[in-house]
Amino acid sequence: MKLHLSKPTTNLISAVIAITGSKSETNRLLLLQALFANIKLKNLSNSDDAEVMKKGLMVSNGEVDIHHAGTAMRFLTSYFAASDGKEVVLTGSARMKERPIKILVDALNSLGAHISYLENQGFPPLKISGRKLTASEVELPANISSQYISSLMLIAPSLENGLTIKLLGKITSVPYIEMTLGLLNQIGVATNFKENTIHIQPLTNAVDATIVVESDWSAASYFYSLVAMAEKGSAITLTSYKKDSLQGDSALVEIYKNFGVSTEFAAHAIILKKVQNQLMDQLNLDLANAPDIAQTIAVTCFGLGLGCHLTGLHTLPIKETDRLAAMKTELEKVGASVAIGPDNLSLAKGGQVIGGATIDTYNDHRMAMAFAPLCLKTNLSINDAGVVSKSYPDFWEDLKKVGLVIKHEGEN
Ligand SMILES: O=C(O)C1=C[C@@H](OP(=O)(O)O)[C@@H](O)[C@H](O)C1
Ligand SMILES: C=C(OP(=O)(O)O)C(=O)O
């Protein structure tokens, strides 16, 4: 599906949008609910990634296909490995078969799991013969993906003696580890995370509580970008958010101040307002703690004519696509001048926006969503726009609520 995007007919934008629960929190809680059935959940994510997670958790024997969902792939690997008697083949999309999983498989096998590779060593698909894991100490490199660590943490309370996890090297995407700890604490698990060691105690009965998932902050980033590029006085209200978020991407509140966007916390909502013009002409930012908003921020900077130097991006090449390479190619299509390194992206300031470009999305929801706000500056088209359903199926409908003019190819 190719979509043509152009700006609203009015200069000031204003809208109220309800976004569903965080996909990261949802996929953790779905796994915890499979282990502790009394947990009740509200405001779950309606994303494809949450759907494949739900479906996967119901399988005991046979193939589980999690498509593009990194969290489902990593979290289900531990879940099945520790589920005595379950025999599954865990597979995914062609891209998923290129996303490394050896660090997690090695860690689980060292705990007594039986996981083997069916195609390429170190990559999905995996054959998993579930069994009771009895060991209680494990170590693994922490600099490639925090999802391996969260995956082990999520099954830890169901192990007889809990789990001590020693993290080797520089720890990446730390807020996602803290999110896992926070959710474990909410269901009654005792945890401790100091320096490079995480202790997780076993749990017999989870707290009898209803957990309301906070809406997705990564999804909110696209509205921050829209407001940043909109006329002064524009405002968008998003529900349901709170100040004490478990999601690292809530760093948007501080980051977008640089672009003149204020965030007001109301009851269960945030109100984003363009209150002044951007405060600088060059943004330097380390995004090792918030890798999923790098694409959004780069496009915002470009749309506003600012330069940026974004660092801490070492995990981007192994996400839905090589996001650094994809960003360089697509930003240059719209007139930007971009340099990338193994863990960074630099955008030269003052680039002139070229109109009428067609953005390729590389099976990456965030490529489509990050570029969409740029239509406030120029008309553009997005190829394979349905890719957004990985995390945000209602994205295009919600953009229409903001007044953006969105047409299918061939539509008048
Ligand atoms: O644990 C999670 O829910 C996630 C962790 C991050 O991955 P890495 O730890 O691989 O950077 C993030 O990019 C991903 O979208 C979701
Ligand atoms: C990287 C992402 O997801 P995952 O790793 O779970 O596929 C993402 O949503 O940006």
From TrEMBL:
GO terms, molecular function: 3-phosphoshikimate 1-carboxyvinyltransferase activity
Top-level lineage group: Bacteria
Gene3D superfamilies: Enolpyruvate transferase domain
Reactions accelerated catalytically: 3-phosphoshikimate + phosphoenolpyruvate = 5-O-(1-carboxyvinyl)-3-phosphoshikimate + phosphate
Keywords annotated in UniProt: Amino-acid biosynthesis, Aromatic amino acid biosynthesis, Cytoplasm, Transferase
Binding-site residues for 3-phosphoshikimate, renumbered to this chain: 23-24, 28, 145-147, 173, 292, 319
Family: Belongs to the EPSP synthase family.
Active-site residue list: 292
Enolpyruvate transferase domain sequence ranges: 64-399
GO biological process terms on file: amino acid biosynthetic process; aromatic amino acid family biosynthetic process; chorismate biosynthetic process
Localisation per UniProt entry: Cytoplasm
Transmembrane domains' residue ranges: none
InterPro entries, alphabetized: Enolpyruvate_Tfrase_dom (IPR001986), Enolpyruvate_Tfrase_sf (IPR036968), EPSP_synthase (IPR006264), RNA3'P_cycl/enolpyr_Trfase_a/b (IPR013792)
EC identifiers of the protein: 2.5.1.19
Quaternary structure note: Monomer.
A cellular component annotation (GO) from this entry: cytoplasm
Name by which UniProt lists this protein: 3-phosphoshikimate 1-carboxyvinyltransferase
Functional summary from the UniProt entry: Catalyzes the transfer of the enolpyruvyl moiety of phosphoenolpyruvate (PEP) to the 5-hydroxyl of shikimate-3-phosphate (S3P) to produce enolpyruvyl shikimate-3-phosphate and inorganic phosphate.
Residues annotated to bind phosphoenolpyruvate: 23, 70, 99, 147, 323, 366, 390
Major location (coarse): cytoplasm
